[in-house]
Amino acid sequence: MQLGSRKLHVEIGGIEVCRDLDLDVAAGDIVAVLGANGIGKTTLLHTLAGLRAPDAGDVLLEGAPIENFSPRRRAQRLGVVFQDHQDPLHASVLQTVLSGRHPFLPAFRGESDDDMAIALDALRRTGLDDKRDLPVSILSGGERKRVALAALLTQQPTVCLLDEPNTHLDLHYQVSSLDLVATHVAASGGSAVMVLHDVNLALRFCHTALLLFGGGDTLYGSVDEVIDADNLSRLYRHPMREFRDGKARCFVPG
Predict the structure, then answer these.
(1) How do 3-12 and 56-61 pair as beta strands?
(2) Distance CA 135, CA 132 (A)
(3) What is the spatial order of strands in the sheet that 159-163 belongs to?
(4) 3-state helix, strand, coil in the chain (%, to 5)
């Protein structure tokens, strides 16, 4: 297990996000977190990242309580793409992406040639190599989201936590960005947990799904087991219909 929880209870503003939640995110696993707006998906992700304490239970990183890890050790293993970003004032795209190497730098040492090569490769793979010297502040929302993904790839964490990584992205970059995450997970032997709104992208890229119904009720299992029309209709409080094309499935509102 690379990331997990035991009897996890999370609340925010009197709203129960999950109750007695046991997660086991193994090497190679990509987990989709699905739920309606305001149900607490971001709060749960921040709890799994160790950025807020659970109301009860434990979050485990590499089998140990996450609070046992110093911020530096945690950042060497776990990376987060937030839903919204506060980019460093006047920082360039390259400087921002290079921040992914900071958990690994010795004290008072700058980035090495290897660090620079990793960052430049991440910029190339996210389609940002021609914008490396531009200030992040002038980029579009979609470009900023790709900068955040490039920084994550530069960090090379074992566990990736991504909060709505497709926000502001067009269809091409929605697919290509999630493909980069899947490629990183497969190549590194890592894992990922992603908050998504597109059920069909969850079916395409994820192995496991966590459904947040509200009131602390959850459903966790393989996408084949838990993603169906009945569960999605309950999840989104709207009728959903399933269509099949051979083995492929997709869902649309009814």
Answers:
(1) antiparallel
(2) 8
(3) 78-81, 159-163, 191-195, 30-35, 208-214, 217-222
(4) 40, 30, 30
Q: The CATH number of 3-77+157-253 is which of 3.40.50.150, 3.40.190.80, 3.40.50.300, 3.30.2320.30?
A: 3.40.50.300
β-pair type (56-61, 64-65): antiparallel
Cα gap 173→197, rounded to integer Å: 15
In tens, the pLDDT along 170-186 reads 999 999 999 999 999 99
| DSSP secondary structure, 110-151, as one string | ---HHHHHHHHHHHHHTT-GGGTTSBGGGS-HHHHHHHHHHH
* 92-130 pLDDT tens trace: 999 999 999 999 998 878 899 999 999 999 999 999 999
Q: Please name every residue paired with 33 in a beta bridge, in sequence order, or none if there are none.
A: 195, 210
Q: What is the mean pLDDT of residues 139-155?
A: 96
Q: What is the DSSP letter of 68?
A: G
**Contact assessment for residue 61 and residue 49, using Cβ atoms and an 8 Å cutoff:** no
Domain ranges of the chain: 3-77+157-253, 86-156
* Burial category of 204 from C-beta neighbours within 10 Å (exposed 0-12, middle 13-18, buried 19 and up): middle
- Give me the helices (H) in 189-221, please: 199-205
**Rounded Cα distance, 218 and 52, in Å:** 20
pTM above 0.70, yes or no: yes
Two tokens, residue 192: 């990922």
